[in-house]
Write a structure and sequence with these properties.
Number of helices: 15
Structural class: alpha/beta
Number of strands: 15
Shape: globular
Distance between the termini: 66 Å
Helix content: 25-40%
Order of helices and strands: HEHEHEHHHEEHEHEEHEEHEHEHEHEHHE
Strand content: 15-25%
Amino acid sequence: MLDSDILKKNVDLNYRDVRLNDYQKEAINQSLYTKNFFLIHGPFGTGKPDTLVELIYQEVKNGNKVLAAAESNIAVDNIVERLAKVSGLDITRLDHPQKVSKDIKSQTIVCKLEKHELYSKIERINKDVDRLSKELNEIKFKSKSKSRKPFLIKEIRRNKRIIRNTEKIIMKDIINESQVILTTNSSAARDELSDIEFDVAIIDEASQTTIPSILIPIAKAKRFILAGDHKQLPLVISSDAAKELEETLFKKFIEKYPSKKQLLNVQYRMNEKLMNFPNSEFYNGELICDEKVKDSSIDIVREDLDIDSPLVFIDTSNHPKRQETRLKYSKSYINLLEAKLALKIVNDYLDLGFDEGDIGVISPYSDQVNIISNETDVEVKTVDGFQGGEKEIIIMSTVRSNENGKLGFLEDLRRLNVAITRAMKKLIIMGDIETLSHNDTYKRLIEDCRSENTVIEFKSEMEELE
C-alpha cells in the first residue's frame, strides 16, 4: 500500500534553484506529494541543504504551512541563513537570539516581536513598571510611605501580566502570519505552537536525533519529511542505560520502507579518488562524482612524506615510537608521534602559502585533539566535531597502535566514514597499519591505498620530528 501513498509522480515543477540535479528534484517531488512521510538520504556533499531549501520553498508555494526542525541550533541556523536569501518567504526562527548567529537575528521571533505594532504598548508599560519599582525601592527607607507598598506590588504584578499576555498575542500573530517556522526539535514543544497544526514538518539531522526528540515536531504536522544519513554518526548518548536511544527513526524507516526514500546520488564535495572508498564501502557504489570536482586536487607536493595523489596513507608501523599512550587520569588515548607528524604537515602547508582555514586535523580521541590544537591555530576536532564540516586538506590521526590490535572508537565505522569524507582535495591518513588491519574495513582501505601506491612508510631514521 505504501507505493500508492505518493499522490502525484513526475510533476513538472518550476524549480527556483536551477542547479538541482535529477535526484534532488525527485526527492522534492516525492516529498511534496506523499500522503504521510518521505525520507531523503543525503550522504556527504550531495546537496541536502539545497534540496531542503527548495522543498520548503515549493511547500510554501503550494500554500502549506511548514515546520522546519533539526536537533541542533547550528543545523536550524544553516537552514535559516539559506531561506533568508529566498525572496517572498515569511520565515520565523524560534528560540532566543543569544542562541542563534548574528546574521539571522532579524528572523527570530524576539526581534520580530520588537517590530510589531503592539510592541509600543509593552514599552509604555515597561516604563510604568520601572517607575513603580523605583518608587517601591525608595519607600523601604521612608516609614511614612510604607502603606503604599502593597498597592505598588500589586500594580507591578498586574503590569507584568499585561506585558506577558501582550507578548503572547504578538507571538501568536507572528507565528500565524509566518509561512515557515524554524526551531530545534525540543523547542517545537513551546506553548506558542501548542494549537498550531502544520501541513508538513521537514526535519534535518534525522539520523542524529533520538526517537522521543523527533516525535515532537512530527506530532505537530499532517505529514513529515526526514532528511539525514544513517551511514554517518548518530547522536552521542552518554548514558549506558540509554544506549537504546541511539537507534533512530530515520534508520528504522529507511530499512523498513525502502520505497519511501530517495538517495541523493551526486556528490559535489571531493575528488573522485577520495570518494571511491567510502562510496564502495558505505553506499554500494551508488554515488556519482560531479564533473566540476572529479579531478580537483592540490597541485603542490610537500618535500617529506607526500606524493602527487589526493589520498596518502602514512604508515607508522615500523617506527619505534609509534605506540599509543594515555595522559595521567585520562581514559582517552594519545599518540605523540602522530601528533608531531600532524603538526609538521600542517606547518609545511602553511609555509607553502595555504591559509589556516584550508586545513583541518581530525582524530577520534579528544586528548589527541587537545595536544595538537594547543600547538596550532588550524581547526583540530574530534570526528564527531567535524561532522558536517569540510576542508581542502584533512589530516587524520588514527592514534591507535598496540600489539593486540585494539581499535576502540575506530571500530564504529560510521566514525571512519565521517573522518574520510571531510576532505575536498587532499586526505592524509596516518596510522599503524599492523594495528588497523585487525579490522576488515580498515584493511580494505589500506589495500586500496596500496593498490594505488599511495602508502608511504614513516621510517625510524627520520629524526626531525623528535
